[in-house]
Specification:
Strand content: 5-15%
Helix content: 55-70%
Order of helices and strands: HHEHHEEHHH
Oligomer: single chain
Radius of gyration: 22 Å
Largest sheet: 3 strands, antiparallel
Number of domains: 2
Structural class: mainly alpha
Number of strands: 3
Number of helices: 7
Distance between the termini: 50 Å
Length: 201
């Protein structure tokens, strides 16, 4: 599995852990960029520069694509028939639109992403419960279900979207509560360590 993520021949000598981690990060960023391109094209056809602007806007600047990253991605998605491009002579640029296959791939990718996120979430909350930072080891996955509605249900009603936002708000409130408890635990642990240090001094 790891061989598909990284080719050790790309490094002139034996790769360091930092080299390997950087390579994995780059691979993940490329995957998220493909999803981001499909997402913005689900809304309307766009040309390359508009795609970069929309991705940056919708990801709140977390993904800030460059021409060197976007245009190879567009060529790859087009070769896989997930998007199709059309040259507009009067505008002297190429406009891209998502295909039905691209929409299906995007939906499957979102489903797989949330399956992974859900597994990580369960492990994380189980660990927090074991450390007695939270009471319930498995909180309802409200954020996942709400995000799926906002991302995938193009024909969702206004009421469904309002309900999805309400779920997101509730989930974020729960997250704030958990983080607050974690901060309290960290502060207590910090005080314990300070007291222990003073004793040995």
């Amino acid at each position: 599995m790891f061989e598909s993520l990284i080719s050790f021949e790309e490094f002139p000598m034996e790769p360091t852990p930092a080299d390997i981690a950087a390579r994995w990060r780059d691979q993940m960023q490329k995957g998220y960029l493909k999803m981001a391109v499909l997402f913005v094209l689900m809304r309307k056809p766009l040309h390359g520069y508009e795609i970069m602007k929309e991705i940056s806007k919708w990801t709140l600047g977390i993904i800030t694509p460059t021409p060197g990253g976007v245009y190879p991605t567009l060529r790859e998605l087009e070769s896989r028939r997930l998007i199709e491009g059309e040259w507009i002579p009067e505008e002297r640029r190429r406009t891209y639109r998502i295909t039905s296959k691209g929409r299906e791939v995007f939906k499957k990718a979102v489903e797989k992403h949330f399956e992974l996120a859900s597994s990580i979430r369960r492990w994380f909350f189980n660990e927090l419960a074991r450390l007695e930072i939270i009471d319930e080891p498995d909180l309802p996955p409200m954020m996942e279900s709400a995000a799926k509605i906002l991302l995938l249900k193009e024909n969702a009603s206004l009421q469904e979207r309002i309900e999805a936002l309400r779920r997101l708000r509730q989930s974020l409130q729960n997250t704030v509560m958990i983080l607050s408890k974690m901060m309290e635990q960290i502060k207590l642990r910090e005080e314990e360590l300070k007291q222990g240090h003073n004793v040995y001094d």
